[in-house]
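Quick look at the format.
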Amino acid sequence: MARGTLAATFGLLRIINFRAVRKHAFRAALAAFSLGGGVAVVVAVMIEVTSVSKAVEDVGYQIAGPAPLRVVGAATRGGISPAVVEDTRSVAGVGAVVPVIRGVTMIRNDGDSGGKGTESYGLGLGVDCSAQWIVDPKVCQAGQQEPPPAISKSLGDSLDASATLVTDAGQLSVGKFQRVADLDEVNNGLVAVLPLSMAKVQFARGDRVDMLYVTLAPDADAGEVQQRLKTTLGPTYSVQPRSEPAKGYNVNDVLLPLLGIFALISIGVGVILITQITRLSVEERRREIAIASALGASPASIMTGFLSEAALLGAAGSAMGVLTGIVISEPIVASASELTERFVGVTVPVVLKPAILVVGVLAGLLLAVGAAIGPALSASNTPIAAELSGRAAQEQTTQRKIWFRALLLLAIGLSGVIAARLATLSGALVAWQAILADVGAVVALIGLLLATAYLSAQAITSVRPRPDKSRGATLTIALNALRSDRSRTAAISGAIAVPVVVAILLSGFLVAIHIGATRVAESQADGRIAITTTQFADYGPVDARFAPQTVNKLNALTGVEKIERMAEIEISLKDGSLAHIQAQDRPTFPFGLLAGQSPEASQKANQVVIGSVLAREKKLHIGDILVFGSGLDAQAMSIGTIVATPEYGGRRIYMPYSIAEQIYGPQPAGLIFATPAAGFTAGQVIESIGATQFDQPVTAVDTDGYASEIATSIGRYLTPLNTLKYGLLGIAFISVLSTLLLVGIRRRREVALIQALGATRVRVFSITTIEAVVAGAAGGLFGAVLSIAISEAVRRAAVVNVGLITPLVFPWSDAVLYAVLATVAAVFAAVIPAWKSTRSTPATELRDE
């Protein structure tokens, strides 16, 4: 019995579903592509995340070599004092202690022909001859303690004679650096190795180093030695095994939340589109389903057939999506590599793991089957008698009301907006609030997009032209056709609304980030002149900060009343994770206050100000104590304020410059703000700075120039987002075409009937085109209106994931542009089936009536 039932199910699947897929291969391909677009974005995001993580880990392992243990201080930059080095060497079981300085260096290539120079970022290492896995043993002769300066052969071949290595002390000519072929394997050749003593001077480490790599004595156990080191050095030092990659700033802390938001959008769009296409497919085969049911097919077998068809299309779409994701991951990874080079000196190649391909295919299958459940249930509940007697279409027209569905979806979407807003009113400092905000954003996106489709259909239904106007016959027939099948009308309107909403949402979000960055920069400069030795957005991670002599010259310039410094300090928290301190002589706080007293009051009371993401991840509250520094220099400070800051992904700590130097020692400034003296303008001071000779390049701009530079540099973060933006828009526009082409296939018989009643081919073509314009305009209008609510939900999700409170921006120009483009796409999509309809013979299409 069971075997017979299974055979019947397979037979039904072959006749109704798979035969339809073969017969309408083009339609099936469109459905698969609609789903594949969402899979492509997800795959591209996974490739980017994997590539960045793998590159950073690989460089860490290359530096570690065979050393099984690593010692890191409270600050990742200069966190190990000479006393700690000696204490480490004295621990039983320790073989050798290898001190290492690891920095991010800039190599400036001015060009032989006097043209514009280029700047590249890479890894700067300071080592002695004990690091034999980095330094060729042949380089260090007997009794030699340090190797000569060297760069990789591939890097040396790409430079000319004017190339310099920019450091915290000035610039070093790399002309006499050794070219070492073995270094080509380290960080893809973007590496420079300095003698340890030289690195301490050039990278402003004083007598300190960044980390210690520890090898073991014969027969020593790594776990036992690790425990002895922890006991000897104390809790403010971290002793990490080789299996734990060396920590460094991960740009995914900033990029991943933003990319994640885009991935969620793509998934939501994919689910909506595959649902629409599957529903239209079911409607097209109602009569076949009724016949099969009358012959004994069970509702379960009918449902299984459509779910299997969806799985087949999902597999095909996933395959296309995976291949597309691999292609679009190239520019995304390239953008991430540019950022990673600046923050940790690591270049990022594309890494494609087989697991990503598997996850992409499975995701597509699950999305397709999940999206098809609703239409499949509808197919299994097909009224047999009504469908076979020809009453189904009339019953659907007279009885099916979509107001309830539209209002229900609208309520669901708005509830998502409300949930996201309520969860973030206090900054989402608790884990469950963050989860609620993200879920609310997804619910808002899907609910409101679907509501847009049904509201558009209902609005079109409400338009009833006056019957006595003979000139409007074409429009009247088009409107009647749209009213006769509201499900089809909703599908067209929804397909138009998707690209419009996506365009408005993403454009507004990116514009809001740009506005926020500009406001932060203006607040930081606060009417002062901003000065840097690198690029204004790169002052923190790059070891090319202000040398003491440069600071002294700036302070002594005529027209400068005073200078105020800003520095970045990367630190390790108690659990080994990283955070980033911003130290300022005159702190500025252009961020939203979430908890505690004002930031200024906290700074005056020697309390720290922290970002909301850091507070949530570490479960920190106002009044909690954080310990900064190592050994005798360690200092406990309480948390006075929590702010919504996007800097370093919300993992930011603010403290006065003087306190930072007490804890971590002298810190070279990355930015300097100069206040013009009375009687001098900013322009005069900038001109004076430009005319002064410094040992390192110095750039000065006024407040407006600084804001412009910061806003422009934010574009580096937004490049991968813009790539995904246009990818999503392309997917949405192609889905418009696919939906309308499928609708055109469904209504051939309807068009044939109009022709049989005397309509000319021109009239038929006009009717079909007008339907697309009317439905598209309604979808675009409702989509633009509801996109405001969707933007609010996504804006709230940004508070959780990025720690950023952005203004609610509605980009009117983009809204109009993409509404027009979407409508044009709708007309274009309608032209093809309209033209095909005029080529068909009414008798052929109506022979079954």
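Next, a different chain entirely:
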Amino acid sequence: MRRSRLPITLLALTALVGSSLVATAPAGAEPTARTGADQAHDHPHSANSVRIQMTGADMLEKVVAAGFDIDHGLRRVPDGIEGEAVVTTEQVAALKAMGVQVLDDDEGFEWSEEADGGLRALGARAVPSFSHEKTVRVVRADWFTTKGQGFLYVEARTTEGQQASPIVAMQLENDSGQGTPFGFARTMSRFVDSGQYMFHRNLFKLDARPSQIRVTSSTGGVTTGTVSNWLEDAPPPLTARPGYQADFVDGYRHPQQLFSRAKEIAQQYPDIAEIVYLPHRTNGYQRKAQATIGGTGQEAVVVSSAAWGHEGGNDVTVEFVDRPGGNLPLTVEVTGKAVRVLLAKDASGALASTAAQVAAALESQSQGLIDRAHPYRTNTGTGIVVPTAGPVALSDFLDEKRVGAPEGEVPRGPASIPVLRIGKHRDGRNPGVLIQAQDHAREWVPATTTLETAERLVRNYKTDQETKKIVQDTDIFLILSNNPDGANYSFYNYASQRKNLTNHCEDANADPARRNSWGVDLNRNYRVGSGHDGYAGGSTTCTSGTYQGPEKLSEPESKNVVWLVEKYSNIKFMMSVHSNGGQLFWQPGAYIADGRITTPRPPLGDEAFYWQSAGRILSQVKAHRETVVTPENVGGSSDVLYSSAGNVREDMYHTYGIYSFGWEVGGSVYNPATGNWQGGSFQPPWVGDPTLVSGHAETMEYANGIMEMFRIAAEWGKDKKKPTSELVPGGGTYRGPVDVRFETSEPATIYYTTDGSRPTLESPRYEATEFREPGQVFHVTETTTFRWFSVDTAGNIERNYDPTKSDRRDNYRSATVTIGG
């Protein structure tokens, strides 16, 4: 096992933001047999996309608990949380009954430029005032441009923000450039999550780049901050290099196409590529054949075959038969795959078999054809069963071809997932990078983005020097689809499928009308910060879009990822690619709702490295068509989005020390014509306006970002340079108390002492003032000697100091701050 990460924080940023949100609770009439109406009752095109708004995190939790899938595409607005839902008319009514506001879908959201702005921005770090007496701190003040327009995003925090009454108001002003006065006053929005004050924030469009901002609190606090650039002046992407080849993927790909192409690449480029098969086979694109017979009342019976549908279950028929006469017993006849239930009759000749009795007879007398029969959902089965009009065919309800879906039969049965491994030296010497796409089935762009990066690597290896460096200096593992069963279901049956196809539901949720809600959310099935340990964001309801599974690592797909990083211990970087929303995030990923207690935050050095890497990755995304992932959408995922218990990133980082990113591709694109930000979707049109939303454009721009992540990993593996650090303003004699802080030459973690002892890895670690803020400030009131050393993310220690040994060559850093000398 590699070393585990421990707690901490960093520079700063936070907020929630938007894209689309889909509800997968079953819709429409309940099927009783395989009819045309049954096949269409929950077809993806029977639902519509609507914009909704919830009052806050408490309502969000209630909506999730009710079975609606809203894990993606949320954005914070001044008076709540907004997103999109793909729902039926019945589900819209259910949302309204819960107090959810259904908005006019023709109106795009736009932050007010006069007051209560709050999000939708990007940024760079502000330089805060370090006086310990300040009650207001500027967290970020970021300037960026997109589509010819300029935007300023600000986060500020008041030390009095948590109090409930009076609510602290904050006002923001900015200048119009260096040397100009402050003006343009506007009120900032107060952001509270899970009952905890986070900060105030604002985003607005400006004609000129400001140099400074001033924030004033209603309690009297005032501070200023310097405006920084966010993703400005990005270097050109690899695609701008002469002769560089790109744009290889010309449409969406289902898992068979993805895996087939991965194997072709390994065959075509054996000197730099190979296939690694993951050991745990998936449940498979398969289901038992079923039927709900007799409506949905107390007389209804749900029947499931013993064999998988494609292995004979689809050939089974069940018929409920009336016979003349009286005092007849309940019996079952089986001829081949035809099951006839001869219903009981009393002395008067009236039908007398209840649904519960018929279900029991089917299980015991069907000669092994019926595995499970039970009353419908929570019914007790006391109703008298009536005869059917004829034999009812059972069906696994698979292979319902969706309009536009690719041709070809989907292989049934358990599937082995291939990993495409690319690297000139695949022997563990180079840092490994794991890209995991399509944990969630309906997210089609992550798969094409990952395939595009594979094509760029192998096609440019011999002709482009930068690509050659990547392939020679890294060991890349690409999981093109980590949820092939669910992805096939999304392509062929139900476009909004999120989870895998493993059904853990009991009888109350096991009828075929629930089939689009079965499965496990693979990104809630891991071990760190799990819902099983009380963290928020993972559901115990089997039909919920965020169902976490019956236990940690219950699913083969999640077990496979753990197997991969344990077998290939050189994997040091990981990105789980999702859609949509444009967020790029890391730890912490979850919190316990009561008190908003997060999983441990990364050390300051790690968080600084995450931020530095994010800037590089997102600059390459912007270089394609000016899509800006804003700083409100970057940071710890529990701060940027919401709590997602049991996510893969948390497990990879805290258990194995792997720098683990999560990426929601498909960020909002600013539309100058409307003045609004246009969000993405899970399956945007492949070809569309290249300046706005299209699957092709998203694939190309986010492939740019993944290629930059490879370069970051390659440089990390070659990094032998020792970090340097300073105490600012430094040692010396001061007349009175003084504020000091540490600064480093690169992202690095500082261990220090002030008690005269030598610093070790067990010494206090330099942390952030608050999450999303720079390092803490020490208010020194008496003479103090600081001893410290810094360690960068590659493990290089300042001055070659060995914190594990004590000898006369102790070359840690030291500075004495003398007060009143």
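The chain has four domains: 136-229, 238-283+404-717, 303-380, 725-819.

See the schema section for token definitions.
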